[in-house]
Design brief:
alpha/beta; four-stranded mixed sheet; 39% helix
Length: 308
C-alpha cells in the first residue's frame, strides 16, 4: 500500500498565448485544469502506471471541491482533509512564439494548528498502515518547517518506508528525523548539507555522508536530462535518462518519484526502481503542460534503458 500526503495541493490552470507583453490585456486560449501538488501528482502518476496509491490532501473552498471532482474523474483513490483556508490555484502560461513556459505558483492558504492536527489525525485513522508513505511538495504559510519531521516521527512504529521530496528547511528537518529515501536536486543537496558542491564527486560524497549520518538509507540526486545519481549503502550508480523530445518539464520530478515507489512496491530492487522512475520522468516531459507520465511511454523507455 502506498499513501501520499499533500499539505499544499493546488488547482493548476494551464493556458497559452502568442506573446507575453507587459501592460497589455493578454487574451489567452482556453485553459485546462488539473489537480496539482507533489503528493497528489505522485498518486496520479502511480495510477497512470497501473498501480494504486491513496492520495491524502488538504482541501478548502471551491478549489478543494474541484480537486475532489478531478481525482474522482481520473479514478485516483483519495481522501480530503478539510481545512479552513482556500486551496490555492496556480497558473502556467505557454508563450507560443518562443516556447517558453511561465509558472506562477501561489503560496497557499495559511495553515493553523487545527489544520495541522487534522492531517495527523487522518494519517492515524488509516485502518491499513502503508508500506510506503510519500511526503512531497511545499508547506503552506503558517505551517512549521518541522511538520514533515513530526509526521515521520509519528509513524516510526509503522515499519513503513518514508520517501521525502521537498526543499529548504522542511527537507533539512525531515532528513534529521530519518527516512528511507530523499530525492533532492543538486541545489537542494547543497542546502541540505550546507556545502558548495561543484562536481559529480562532491555530489556523491555529500549523499554518502547523509547515509552515513543515518538521515536516509538512499538518495536519488536528480540531474534533469542527464538522469540521476542513485546512492545507497550498496554503492553509487549514475543512471542516464533516455533522450526524448521535450514538451514540458513540469511534472517530471513527481513522475520520477511515482515510478520509483511503484516499482519498489512491486518488489523490485532499488536500482531497477530508479531506472523505472527515470523512464517515467522522461515520459512526462514528452507530454504538454502538466500531463505527467503515460504507462506505455514509461514501459517503452524503461525497456530501452535496460537493453542498452
Amino acid at each position: 500500500m502506498i499513501v501520499t500526503l499533500t499539505v499544499n495541493p493546488s488547482v493548476d490552470a494551464s493556458t497559452g498565448i502568442h506573446e507575453v507583453v507587459p501592460d497589455h490585456k493578454l487574451r489567452c486560449r482556453e485553459a485546462t485544469y488539473k489537480p496539482g501538488g507533489g503528493g497528489v501528482n505522485v498518486s496520479r502518476a502511480i495510477h497512470r502506471l497501473g498501480g494504486e496509491a491513496l492520495a491524502l490532501y488538504t482541501s478548502g473552498g471551491l478549489h478543494g471541491q474541484l480537486i475532489h471532482q478531478m481525482l474522482e474523474k481520473e479514478g485516483v483513490s483519495h481522501q480530503a482533509i478539510p481545512i479552513q483556508g482556500q486551496t490555492r490555484e496556480n497558473l502556467i502560461v505557454l508563450e507560443e512564439s518562443t516556447g517558453q513556459q511561465f509558472r506562477f505558483d501561489m503560496p497557499g492558504p495559511t495553515f493553523n494548528e487545527e489544520d495541522r492536527q487534522r492531517c495527523l489525525d487522518q494519517l492515524n485513522k488509516l485502518t491499513a498502515k502503508p508500506d510506503y508513505l510519500v511526503l512531497s511538495g511545499s508547506l503552506p504559510p503558517g505551517c512549521p518547517a518541522d511538520f514533515y519531521a513530526r509526521i515521520i516521527r509519528s509513524v516510526k512504529d509503522w515499519n513503513c518506508r518514508v520517501i521525502v521530496d521537498t526543499s529548504g528547511e522542511a527537507l533539512q528537518l525531515a532528513a534529521d528525523a530519518g527516512v528511507y529515501l530523499l530525492k533532492p536536486n543538486a541545489r537542494e543537496l547543497e542546502e541540505l548539507t550546507g556545502m558548495k558542491l561543484t562536481g559529480d564527486d562532491e555530489l556523491k560524497a555529500a549523499a554518502k555522508r547523509l547515509i552515513a549520518e543515518g538521515r536516509t538509507e538512499a538518495v536519488i540526486v536528480s540531474l534533469g536530462a542527464k538522469g540521476a545519481f542513485m546512492i545507497s549503502k550498496e554503492g553509487t550508480e549514475h543512471i542516464s535518462a533516455p533522450k526524448v523530445p521535450v514538451a514540458s518539464v513540469v511534472g517530471a520530478g513527481d513522475s520520477l518519484v511515482a515510478g520509483v515507489v511503484h516499482r519498489l512496491e512491486q518488489g523490485g530492487p532499488l536500482a531497477e526502481a530508479v531506472r523505472f522512475g527515470i523512464a517515467a520522468g522522461a515520459a512526462a516531459v514528452m507530454n504538454p503542460e502538466r500531463e505527467l507520465c503515460k504507462r506505455e511511454d514509461t514501459e517503452r523507455l524503461f525497456k530501452s534503458m535496460t537493453q542498452n
